[in-house]
Amino acid sequence: MLRSLTIRTREYLTLGLVAALLASVGAVGLWQLGGGQDARAYYPIGAAVGLTFAFAFFTLRFVIFSPMRLEADALAMGCESVANGDLSRRVTVTHFTELGRVGRAVNRMLDNTVPLVDSRKERDQMQAAVMKLLAEVSGVAEGDLTVQAEVTEDVTGAVADSFNLMIGQLRQIIGQVQAASRQISTAVAELRDVTANLASGSDDQAAQAVEASVAIEEMAASIHYVSENASSSAAVAEQARTNAEHGTRAVTRTIEGMKAVRDQVQETAKRIKRLGESSQEIGEIVELIGDIGDRTSILALNASIQAAMAGEAGRGFAIVADEVERLADRATEATKRAGMLVKATQGETAEVMTAMEDTTREVINRSNIANEAGVALAEIQGVSNRLAELLQAISDAAQQQARGSEQVAKSMNEMSAVTRNTASGTKQTAAAINSLGLLVDNLNAIVTRFKLPPAGVEATPFTQPRLVAAR
Amino acid sequence: MSKPASGMRIVTAADGGARADADVTPQAWHDLILRRCGLIFRHVRMPDVMGLVHGQMRARGMSNEAAYFQLLAKQPGSSVEWETLIERLTNHETSFFRHPPTFDALRTHILPELRAAKPQSGRLSLWSAGCSTGQEAYSIAMCAVDEAGALRDFAVWGGDISHQAIKTARQGRYGPRAIAAVPEPYRQRFLRAVATPSGTEYEIIDELRSRVRFMTTNLVEPDGFRPSHDVIFCHNVLIYFSPAAVSRAVSWLASCVAQGGYLLLGPGEAPHDRPPGLEPVILNGVRAFQRRARSIEGRS
Fold first, then answer.
1. Of the candidate ranges A14-18, A175-179, B163-167, the one whose mean pLDDT is the lowest
2. Residue B48's domain spans which residues?
């Protein structure tokens, strides 16, 4: 009812009411001043107030709120409402004055034109809805993925719905990326440890390979030295064999010489024996001569006896007989000396014979010893031969070993080069893993800027196999 | 068997190699190295040797191989250029107590005998000829301290052709793998663990290190100075020398052995000729060469 009143009407009404109120207050104040005890003293005042109200009412109803005036007010109010944007409002036509017709015309006009104006309203509404939606989802720009756009009935509802779907999926993806980058971080840390171990291990290995190759080189040199020594020992053994051969030949010649000496000694012995036999004969002859001497001596004695018997005639004969006897005596003496000489010769010959026999035995002994020496030398020769062969074999074997160990040394050198390469490769890998770690840290920093709802809300964790899983 | 042949090549190729701007053959290098430092390399090793020579050449900023050959051919074996090249060519393989029977013989036979023979004031001198990075010299010193109970005075000398090896030897610091061969009691007594960024290393204690002196020595081209030592170790050195260089080195080593002293060569390293003035003896199953106390010092 109040709504249908114009503003001015309301002003008047308000004025009237304020005046009535003031009048009532004035009446009560007068009563109080008058110190009125009697209730009947209030009646005029009450009547005055009632009259004032009645007057005010009638003035308002028929002067101020006349139909014309009311319709003008309604017309103005309706137009003002429309002007203020409330296009659903129409002018309330209560009377059928001219102004009422105007009001109806305005209403018809509004009925015809308002649909045209509605689209603008819709646009404003949409703009408002979009602003609201934007306000709701602006957090996403800062990485807040917890936001949820309100799904309304209007046009933006569908957008909000799709937006929520998108955010949901983004949440899932970011969640997975976060999980993956966490796992990569762990894996990179493990890898870093592994490669650090590997790097220090391959450094150690390289150092050991160098040590080993140096040791093997020395072994190769040592074996080569032994091989050369064995080689020259073989030459020495060969020399010994040659010497033994010379010795054997010398011994053979010695034995032959000894044989010749024995033969000659035997020949000499035979001759001496024969010499002994001749002196035996000489002895016999000397004895015979001695005999003849003895008999001559006896004959001479007999002749001298005969001469003595013949006396003076036989004197000359006696002289001859004496001479003969003297000669015979001298002959006997000579034969005695000759016999003694012959005996001495025979004794010496026998001694020479014994000595010769001893010599022969000695020569035979010596020949046997020389023979033994010859056999020993022949054995030495054989042993030296065998020795030379064995030493040659040792030398060959050592040379083989030397070659082998040189090959090993060479391989070790190559191996240590490879190990050095491996070591530097491992270091490079370690460096690469370090930079990978930095990248992952960066990635982590980026993805952790996104705020996700607490775990479990969006239940699709990233379940890829671990990067450093076995095999 | 192949020795005389290669010996023949040495002379001819060395002459050929000295000719200017001719392409330098590996054989020429082989022979030059052989003449200068007595080191002999088998043909299979020559590619490695050539690689090392070229590396040294490039390090010196030269690219003409013939020119570099000429340069080296003109310089004596003791020049810096040769020393640097030798660093690259030599094998530094060694270890503590490498041939244990030799060290047993040293501890149980040689040192007691020498101590008994030396007058009370006598100081024993032991030499590790070709000591490489020093392990042998320190092993000898450990044996000497162990045998004498550190009462007797002794000095150990270590000599090697490689400056780099001598530098390492003087430091006296070794990795865990190197000291594995040191017997546990010696390890406790003579080594000290040192923590380094690359892991634990072991250092020879100062008391022992002060007893060992190191210097560079060329066994093939020795300087005029002839030291006198009671014990000379020369293990796994001769194997790198040509037969002629072995004879020269052994003669020189023999001349450095004091009266009653010993020369101990590596097993299997017996020289072709007996070291002059020394007599072979077997100690604890180890072949050694001794200069008999009464014998007249041989001048070789």
1. A14-18
2. 9-89
Q: Measured over all CA atoms, what is the biggest interatomic distance in chain A, rounded to whole angstroms?
A: 278
- What is the reported pLDDT for A221? 83
Residue A352 to residues A259, A356, A362, B176, B245, Cα–Cα distance (Å): 20, 6, 15, 90, 66
CATH code: domain of residue B68: 1.10.155
Q: Cβ of A395 and B45 within 8 Å?
A: no
Do residue B23 and residue B69 come from a single domain?
yes
Domain count of chain B? Answer: 2
Q: What is the pTM of this model?
A: 0.60
> Both B83 and B150 in a single domain?
no
CB pairs under 8 A between A and B: 50
Contacting residues of A for B238, CB less than 8 Å apart: 225
Query: B175 to each of A94, A423, B16, B146, B182, how far by Cα in Å?
Result: 118, 20, 46, 23, 12
- The answer to whether A417 faces chain B, any CB pair under 8 Å, is no
User: Which residue in this structure is represented by tokens 């030499």?
Assistant: B127
User: How much is the pLDDT for B252?
Assistant: 92
Which residue of A217, A225, A413 is in closest CB contact with B268? Answer: A225
Confidence of residue B10 (pLDDT cuts 50, 70, 90): very low
Among B89, B121, B144, which residue terminates a domain? B89
B146 and B233 assigned to the same domain: yes
Are the CB atoms for B263 and B233 separated by under 8 Å? no
Query: Final residue of a domain: which of B89, B123, B151?
Result: B89
